[in-house]
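Lecture 7 notes. Example A: sequence first, then its structure tokens.
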Amino acid sequence: MTDFQITQLKLSRKTIVMISVLLVAAVLAAGFAWAYKKVEIIADGKQMTVNTLYNKPEDVLVQAKVTVGPQDEYRMSTPKLDNDTVITIYRAIPVSFIYQGKTQSIVTAKPTVGEVAASLGVSQENIRLEPAADTPVQSGMQIKATILSEKVVERQEADLFTVTRRPDSSLEKGAEVVEQEGRDGIKTVVVKQHYADGNQVAEEVMAEKIIEPSTPKIIRVGTRDTVETSRGAMRFRRTEVMEATAYNPWDGSGAGITATGIRARHGIVAVDPDVIPLGSRVFIPGYGLALAADTGGAIVGNRIDLCMDAYSEAIAFGRRTVKVYVLE
């Protein structure tokens, strides 16, 4: 073998060694790169990304210089630390917890109201949490756990009578006559009562059984809207029961002129315009047809003053209760 061939052989061996070293380095580098995990950490309102070789979340948090207090908690988004795992830190904060009438002040790192209750041994079965179980916990929050219960009871109650109103054309509009008095019956009622912390808050009827039926009250309601007058049947809009007095045209100032400017005479009546508007035609049994055309200082509310032509008529009339028909 010549010197040249020997030299070439040595160079070839060196090349092979260098290539081998480079390959080993590349494999090691690739292995390290593959071993690194990218982990997201959310703490104190901030988010950071950490590339780590650690497999324990505690070590990753130390690497990221994130301090976890003795009452703080962390949660991982995956069962074990892996690439793209998110670690969320929950800081311990003060809250008040009300249960069975007692208030307990605690420090908790539980993220939701439901988890706070569970950490205190309060099952959510038959419990109403306020705020709701999935509500995020905030510092200073007041949480109330109310025990819910229900009970089914059977009792007797009055079966209240109904009222039946029957139109009757023989009665004037506005008139009512009781044809039959009502009477309550008896029924058995099954109810479900709902309780909150031992106090009844609602109930619902589940079943009813009539023991003794009720008797309805029957009322005949007048529909006739006409009244017989000296001019025949006339339609009326409504009726008023009023206290009536009488006066003469010369009473008061003695001028005999009404508030509407017409002369006072039989057939003119004084009214409260808020009850019967001036200008209304009325009919008063025992007096007749009239026009509401005057007012008076003492005529307020359901009072009416009837004008009489003679003093003796006014004295004889005196003061009495009358039914006033306000005509159409």
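Example B, a different protein, same format:
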Amino acid sequence: MSFTARVFTAFSALLLVRVAGMLLIPLNETTEARYGEMARKMLVSGDWVTLWHKYGVPFWAKPPLYAWLSAASMGLFGADAFAARLPSLLLSVLMCWLVYDAARRRDGKTAGLTAALALASSTGFFVAGGTVMTDPSLVFCTMLVQLAFWHALHDEKNPRLWAWLFFTGCGLGLLSKGPVALVLPGLPVFFWVLIRKEWKALWQKLPWVRGTLLTFIIAAPWYLMAEHRTPGFLKYFIVGENISRFLDPHWKGDLYGFAHAYPYGAIWPIAFGGLFPWSLVALKWARTRLRSEDGWILYLVLWSIASLAFFTFCANIIWPYVLMMQPGFALLFAAYAAREETFVRKYVPLTALVTALLGAAAIFAFRYFPQKLANDQADIIKAWQATGPRPNSHLVFWSNRMEFSAEFYSGGRAFVTDDPRAAELLLTDGTRDCIITYTYNEKTLPRDVRKAFHEVARITNHRGTRILLCQ
């Protein structure tokens, strides 16, 4: 079997497993279920400006690009987990094509296939590639900026097109995650220009005045409308989410969760894990020096380490922060691998299958051991739907924390509360209502309410046993 055929087989296995996971694993709390539910709210409300954390409470922590994509997908294919996740998969496929094209231009088709396969099968990228969250769109935008910068300076056929794509990526990046989408690609660009003394090319090859205007035209209207709709957004988002979150390990201003405090430097071992299995393979070339006349290798090294260096002294990090460097690492990996074609042809497709096997094992575990791993409400909502609820009936999820997956899978009908007055209203509304509660919360239900409901189902996940109670 040819190298191309074996790479295609590995890609097919990765894609098959990733699609299977998107279909078979429900949206899990908290991150993915929350982002999926906010996109669903955007679709059903018709409000494409404001993200809603819950009805009446705006979500100021992120811009809307991911939600626009997920909501549009659900509008086309239905409001389910697969449709909500589909844009992340499509963006991931597009990113693989972009690294393939970049590596192919440099070192030929084999290098292009190696780069694309290394990116697709890196554990972190593989997981994010079918998950509802902001990071796939952010990684796409930062990657577009960094590749467009390089091609604007070095492409002989369409440098002006790439120059405009550079500023387009900046504008879309501001809509994906805000100012950090400019900072992260800006670091390797700045240091490459500084080291190579390419200031003249930087100024001449990029239309800074008109390009900056394009970035502003793409991003500014949403920011202005968001502040107009919900005053206070800009202060919270710019100061809180983009400054305090990274500098203050005990930041108390998070309105929607909590700070994820890690020791300084924790981003490096997280990145090592996120690049698995290629982080282990790359150790083979740890002491090998590789140079290029035009600074390509230097650029890839800076791309691979700049975001990690940035987050080294940030006290509040999460694992998706390592994703921004992975396209650069994949291109760097391919540049080294191109010097050892025998090794590449023999081991690269086989190594990529490790990730596919791990993904298949994860799907099996989630499907057959939900009581140990699952953190979603899809199963208990399915039990509620089996009771044939009437359109005017109510479903209360008795909890003191948000249960976004319950809202998502019930189509917005689940009302999450621990207010006794809300529960007692169920006794007088004249409909056949239901309550879902964890067993550890059952005793907090008002006695008269509990007596009026009988148990219909009891299902366990890793957070505990939930009971479905109906009148």
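Note on Example B: The chain has 22 helices and seven strands. The beta strands are 52-54, 57-58, 395-398, 414-417, 434-438, 454-461, 464-470.
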